[in-house]
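ok so I'm stuck.
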Amino acid sequence: MNRRLVRAVLASTAIALPSAAWAQCATVDPIVVPPVRIDALDASGPGELAQPFVLTFRRTGVGTDPIALRYQIVDEDSSVRSRVGLTRGPIVEWQSPDSSRYIGSSRSEAYSLLRSGQIVLEKNQQAVQRDVVLRLVDLRNEDFAAGVYREQFTVRFWCGDNEQTIPFETQGAIAVSVAVPNVLSANVAGASAAGQIDFQDFALRSRTLQISVRSTGPYRVTARSLNGGELRRETAVSATSADRIRYVAALDGEALAVDGGSAQVQARAGLAGRQMPLEVNVESVADKHAGTYADTLLLTLMPAN
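replied:
not stuck anymore, here's the structure
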């Protein structure tokens, strides 16, 4: 009876002992990757950006023998393509100089060494560093809203060359941030920064000009009339009402204050942009002197931060 008890205890002890090959051999130093800035409206900008950084692996325990490590970077919340942030952030790829393959993986994938880099802690070496490149791709094909996209990525690594060993992980080891500034571009009736509304003989008292806007975020619009909101006869020597034609302006159906004061706030236009009609309505010209009337209306569009 006693011998059976001893055998049972010994068997239980043997099962509970961890395999030396599965012991954690290293740790990973947390790293903050230098911030990246993307100007989404810069048509001449690159289609992708590369940001290098350095990962540091440190030996654990008292052993001094060489240790081979395989490692990869895991995105905790992306499933199809890895992004910085949630669903709308820039697409990110990870590459190590020692591998022709990318070393990024998602949490939903099975543990795989197909996309991994390799390093070796040499005999008596306490730490080893590896250059890694963060690549932001497809930048010209994405419509990023202004803001800062942030995420912390996990480093997963295997100790030893045996693919059957369990991986160890350092969650949140790599902090990444990508800033997309609030910028805009605008033009009038095509590609010009200036346009003209011609009322001709005032047979129509309402005329429209199209304003094209592209923006990564919301923006403010202010208007200032050089003549105080009226068309003035060019050869007039007096300031009588017969030489002035009052008008009101509206942008995208919303009245514009032409004194340069209060501003309209418009929603983000995106990279595809939007067309907004600038409509000008003049008063009756029945009692006005004959002549050419003109005014300059200055529109200012500024990002609304």
